[in-house]
Write a structure and sequence with these properties.
Blueprint lengths: L5 E8 L2 E12 L4 E10 L8 H16 L2 E5 L7 H7 L24
Parallel strand pairs: 3-4
Antiparallel strand pairs: 1-2, 2-3
Length: about 110
């Protein structure tokens, strides 16, 4: 799957979707960054290498076809996702800080 800045990969078993990775290229000073926006694998298909293969495929694609200098993602600290990505060389950034601004309260909160 590809548009000018979107990159994605899907894992299927026959006609059944069992995993996917979606990302976006972002222009930066020295080259593009690859933001991994979402990756998921069906719960009953986790821990068999599907996530690893999706990640390896997507990173190989952006490395071969785009001027990507780094890949990044946002996730909760001390999470299963952080542990997963750490196994493949991702680490906490010392140079970036995530800032947020809540624009609306979730429904039912005051």
């Amino acid at each position: 799957m590809e548009t000018s800045t979107f990159r994605g990969a899907a894992a299927t078993d026959g006609d059944q979707l069992v995993g996917m990775l979606l990302g976006q290229l972002e222009g930066w000073i020295d080259g593009d960054l690859f933001l991994i926006q979402e990756m998921c694998v069906a719960p009953n298909r986790q821990n068999v290498g599907i996530g690893r293969r999706l990640l390896e495929y997507a990173l190989a694609q952006v490395n071969a076809t785009d001027q990507v200098i780094a890949a990044y993602l946002l996730t909760d600290g001390e999470s299963r996702a952080e542990a997963f990505y750490s196994r493949y060389g991702f680490g906490r950034s010392s140079g970036k800080v995530v800032l947020n601004l809540r624009l609306k309260q979730p429904a039912g909160h005051r």
